[in-house]
Structure formats: C-alpha cells, structure tokens
TrEMBL record:
Name listed for the protein in its UniProt record: Membrane protein YfhO
InterPro entries the UniProt entry points to: Uncharacterised_YfhO
Transmembrane regions listed in the UniProt entry: 49-69, 138-158, 165-186, 192-209, 221-237, 243-262, 269-289, 354-372, 379-398, 418-437, 453-471, 527-545, 552-570, 836-858
Record's compositionally biased regions (Basic residues): 1-14
Region Disordered: start-end pairs: 1-24
Amino acid sequence: MAKTQKSRTSRRSNRPAPLEGNDVWRSRSRVRRAGPALREATWWEGLPGAARHGLCLAFLLLVAVGFFWPTTFGGRTLVGGDTVQWRATAEAMLQYEAATGDEANWAPNVFGGMPGTLIIGSPAVPGADSVARVLRRIGLWPVAHFLVLLGGMYALVFYLTRSSLAGVIGAVGYGLSTYLPVILTAGHNSKFVALAYAPWLLLAFGALVRRGPESSKMMSALLVLLFAIAASVNLRAGHVQITYYVVVVAAVWWIAEGVAAVRAGRGGAFAVSTGLLVVGSALGLALVADPYLAQWEYKAFTTRAASPGGGLGWAYAMSWSQGFGELLTLVIPNAYGGGGATYWGGKPFTAGPHYVGTVVALLALVGVAGVARRSVAAFGVATLLTVLFALGENFPALNRFAFEAIPLFNAFRVPETWLAATVLLLALLAGWGAYYLQRREATTEAEDRKRRIVLIVGAGLAVLVGGLWLAGGAGLAFERAGEAAQVQAAAAQQFGLSPGDPQVRAAADQYLSGVEAERAGLFAADAARSLLFLGLALGLVALLLWRRAASWAVLAGLALLVTVDLWGVGRRYFNEDNDALRRRSSVEAVIPETAADQFVVQQVEAAGGAGRFRVLPPNPTQNAVPSYFYESVGGYHGAKLTLIQDYFDRLLPDDETGLNPNALRLLSTRYVVAPGVPPGLDPVFQDPQTGLVVSEDSTALPRAFLADEVRVVPDEDVLVAAIRDPAFDPRETALLAAPPPGGAAAWSGAAPDSGAASVELQRFEPDEIVWRVRTDRPRLLVASEVYYPAGWTVTVGSEPAPILRTDFLLRGVPVPAGEHIVTMRYVPETKRTGRLISWIATLLTYGGVVVVGGLLWYRRGQEPV
C-alpha cells in the first residue's frame, strides 16, 4: 500500500525504511511481516548488555528463592507420594550399598524381585548436571534445578528474540506454570528435572540447526559437542517421556528450518547442519550409555513392550487423556475443579491443572499473529500438535495413527503430560509476543497492524473468559460422567434401600446440588481472576501501543503480572499445608510403619533374615511401602516385569477363594496382610490401628527346594491352567516351558528318603544367592526368584549351569547328584559396557569442549578456520 508521509530512517542502517507493500518490502519478507524495526532509545536500552542480563537474572533468582522458600530456608522437606514409594522400593539396594560400599543391581524386596535399573538409575559417570545433583544432595532441592530451568528458558528466548525482558517473561511463564509445583508435590522428581533441562536442549538444537554457512569448522564442532551434552543431560534426568516430547518439538522446528533453507537456496548448508545434528545425537546417546543400555535391555521384558506392537496397549496408554473442555484449565485453573476432591473432569483423578494464564496466552497469540519468523510458525504448529496429542483417546483420528506409526509413541502413557510441552511452547511464544510489542515499527501501517492484532486477540480472550464467567459456566456440567449413578449407589448402600428409591434419589440430588454449586463457585472465582489479569495486561499493552509508557516498563510490568498470576495459583499446591511439605528430617521419616509391619519384621528376624519368605501386602500392585520393611510380592513401579504383571492378572486371582493358593506358594508367600482373612489361611495378628489382619499360609514353599518331577508344558495357557489347578503340587512337580538338558525324564524320579535331598541357604544378597544343595540323584533346584534372563548366571560348584524358566515365573537349575554349592549372581553386562562407553564419550566430549572452546577464544578476531 502507498504511504502518505516519508519513511523515517532505520537507526541501524541509516537508510530509509522501505514503503510497506512495495517491491523492496516484499523482497524482504512476506506481506504479513511487520516491516523493519527501530530501536527505542531508553535508559534500559542504554545499559550495557551485561547489566541488563544481570538485572533480569537477579529477578529470576528472587522468584526462585521466594517461591521455594519453604524448602530452601523454611525447614521443610519436599517429599511427594511417589518419592515415598521410590524410597521404599530402593531400600534393600540402599541398605546393601551402605553396608558394603558396593552398588546393588537387583531389588529383591519389591514384586518378588526386579532389576534395579529403573529404581536407582543415576549415572555413575559425571556430567554437566553433576553440579545441580550435588546442590540437591546438600539440601537445595528443588530450587537448584528450578534455577537451571529459569536460566535455560531465559537463554532460549533471548537467543531467539535478543530481548532480555522477553526472556524474563518466557522464563517465569514456563517456570511458574502450575504443573511444575503439582508434580513436585506428587513426587515426580525425574519429570521435573527433565523439564528443567528441556529449554537447554532446544537452545542447543536451535544453535546447531540455525548455524550460518559461514560458521567455522571449529565453531560447528563446538556446537555439536554442546548439543550432545544438552541431549545427554536431559536424558540423564531419567524421564525419557519428556525428552521424547522435546524431540518432537525439535523435529517440527527442524522441518520449518529446512523448508526455509531450501526456499532461500541454502539446502546444502542445512544438510550439513542436519548431519551435524545426527553426529551430536549419536554422541549424546553414547554419553548416556550408562544407564540407558541396561534400561533398553530391561524394557524388552516389561509391560512397556508387552503389546503386539512392542509397546503399551492402547487403553492403558490412553489413560489420563485430556478432555476438550478441560483445555480451559490452561487459562482458568479451577474450570474443572482444580485437583483432588473437587475435580470433576474425565480423567480418573488429577492433582492440579496445566495452568499458564491469560497473560501468557495473550502474549503467545500476539506473537503467533504478529511475528513472521519460521521459528514462530514452527512453535505454533508444535503447540497445536502437542495439544492434540494430549487429547489422547478423545482425538483418535490423530492419536491412533501416531500410536501405530510414530516410533516410540506407544511406549508412553498419560497423554495429558504432552501439555507440559504445550506450556513450554506457550511461554516461548509469549516471549516472542513480548518482543513484538517491544519492537518499535518503522512504519505507521505496521504500528496500526500491531494494535489491530492486540485488540483482536485481547477481545477474543476476553469474550471467551468473560462470556463463560457472565454465563456462569454455561456449557460446563460441573458433574463427573456417571457421578450421579455412583452417588445413588452409595446412598442406597448407606440407607439399605434400592438405588431407585425416592429417598435415595432425593439424597443423591441434594448432595450433587451442593457439590455442583461448589464447583461452579470455584470456576466463577477463577474466571473473574483470569479476566482481571487479562484486563491489567491489556491496559499495560495499551500504554505501550499509544506511547504512554516506555517499552521496558511495560514488559517489566507484564513480567510482574505473569509472576503474580502464576505464583498465586502455584501456591495453592506448593504450600506449607501440603502433606508433601511437612516439617521432617528425611524421606525415611515419612514412611509409615504399622503394627502389622512390625509384627512381620519380627517374623523375618526370627526366620533368620532376608531370603526366607515374602509377604503379600494390601493393594499389592500400587503399594511399595511394605517393601521398605520386608520382601514383598507387591510394589509400585511404572515399568514392571511382564511376568509379574501376568502373575497378578492370570495366576493370583481366584473366583472362589480370592487368592489362588498355588500362586501364593510359588512366590513363597508366608503372610498375607489384608482387611480380612483369605480362605485357607490362619489369622495370626491384627493391627489395632488399621484393623488389617496378618494371615499365615502354613503350606508356603521355601525360597528354594528340589522338585521330584519335571514336566514340559510348552503352551502358556495350559501352563497357567495347570498351576492354578488345586490338584497341582508345586513342591513335587516343576513345570517347564522348554525341555531341560537331557530331557524331563533325566530329572524326574521317586521322592527321596528322609534327609537324602536338602537345600540350605548360605548367603542372600541383592546380587548374589548361595545355597548348599545335597541330592541323591539329578534333580531340578527350583528357586522362588523371579525369572529374568538378562544378567543372572548360575554355577553348580565351579561349573556354569543354565537357568530354566520354571513354573511360569520362577528359576530352575539342573543339579547333578551329590553335594554342591549353587551360586546365582546378577551381573548385567550391559551395565558394564554402558559405563565404559559413557566414560569414553564423556572424556572425548567434555575434553573437546575445553580444547575447541579454548582455541576459539585464543583465535578470536582472526579469520575463520
């Protein structure tokens, strides 16, 4: 379009800015780009760059220390529920290491025994994250990692926008988003650490993929090494799901950069950058060979690879899919009741929302609409994609395809976790929006366009939030699906009447009316709150657009608004009243010990210590706390062995008795702790506080015994049915899936005379079990230890012997006639190999950074080499 006045000059080039819409302007950009910018001459812009960074980082430091004051200086110890479960799971391994100084690789106290790869998986090889780990150990948890998060997000936004104040907005927008304090109080520590390092990984990726063709070979090498370190640090956090999300975001960015490079005739340079990314990725994987080589081996035996596609089943993976309507919680935190008892969304339960606020949403949408950069387009597409992935089973058109076609997509569950990446992207786009507002356009047309964008986006958000507020949440039911029927059933049971009785319906309706009114009140209060912050943000932006305030002051005000907004909602979940933030000396002090636990511990000591029997606790698949005190059949873990899951699904349940007696005996379950007494067991103790009854199975098998007969049952369904058959005696007969050496007959025969065959436990440690075995003829030694072929070896005397899968989930060892020392050891070769690879890669990578970085510093100002 034509202009009616002469263009002002650009401060950088001292040349007139091109007329918006003419050929010169079109040659620089697409029409929607808002022209060249003029730098604003304010005291802030006049400060040296180091001073601006110092002030911004000082503010972020205050935010970090202030928000986490209770754990940093307030005498509180952060112990979430999952942290308690982890600590109980790791107890046997930690005890062994404390007593011997050697690390344990096997956890014998949980799920009948499982590899410790995903329990204590911290890398032994040092890395860039070691400093934060040390700070964590001395008590600066989680503030140390939170500072890493804020610093990374600030650096990423500044790298893209060159605006330090935009970097502050992006940092607090991501760092104080509500999901982070929610997962901390829940005990999802590894997830929090991975999210803390996510901006650094994107920064390293962007620096490498966007490197100019003029970059020197040494600079390119340094970028490759830094990318490898960033990737390894994110993986070393121990939450691959988050790393996978970051990789998906980076892939979208990579596509955008590739398209732009091809259009600009820089396809060759982009291909080189892509090759360097591949090299950096390979080096990053080598850096984390410890512990991931062992974890990859372990995955093949777990529920994470149990489906026909090599991953999780669809229904299990899609649990905790985000609902369409529940996306409102991004801007109205209590739209669906927040978390806990007041939550009424479609997920089984939730602890809190993925709230990012209307201020961040406003700035993000302004950034997408106003800034025509390929990275902004990429982040906008990635934001939409992560939202659709978060919908899970509620958007099967995309997610079913992704589940079946995209590598590793089916390895992860809880789709709503994708919103963690969504929030990161929204905060990043908010930084771009702040940059766009701060930028002084060179033409009046561009300034007018900016005002139109802000008005349209602001009005749209105001109509959405304000309209719902004024309408009292019209369209929101404030009732969980099926909740009315559940309440009626509960009321019927309470009154002893049928669910259809008028009295029952009246009581249920009265209860639901009160609950719905409470939920509607929560929604209305937060909708009004969000509308207030949106109005304040629009007021600040108006001052900037109509030249009533300096850009630095407006951006500082917006950063403060974002901080106050997200701080207020985050404090609902991270505060001194939360059980995860009680005053305590350690994690161990939180683990509850009941009278039933004390009784079982006394029986363990009386029997001679660990390795004699196991206990089936209440809620065995979701309860690891008893594992802190004794060896448990149950536990809590996100990647259980498929064998133990099959045990709970196919062997243990019994329609008549509740618990199949043979299934209990196989895992040497002497005691069952439950609210009642299972049929066939003898009650021996009742906890006076909890009412739980400890029942004893007097027929429990020893942890190792010699079978008289061996039978081969290759069909797994037939094998399961045979074990569950009451006529089957696992003490006499061992069932194998494959023939043993020499055939089944070689290990079968009559029962021995008294004393002719015996098994005596000599030593029981996490990674080694030793028995003295005496037998009058060749027999199969059945060890009541969970079968795991990757790492366990056995010797009979000094000769190696095979470990046979026995009785579906146990280990069998052929033992010849005579007296022998039988030793089982767990020495996973993948762990040794992975550690060696990591050490070599670490020395090469970090040494390379020092050498190449030093040479670049020494040669600064010289020609590229």
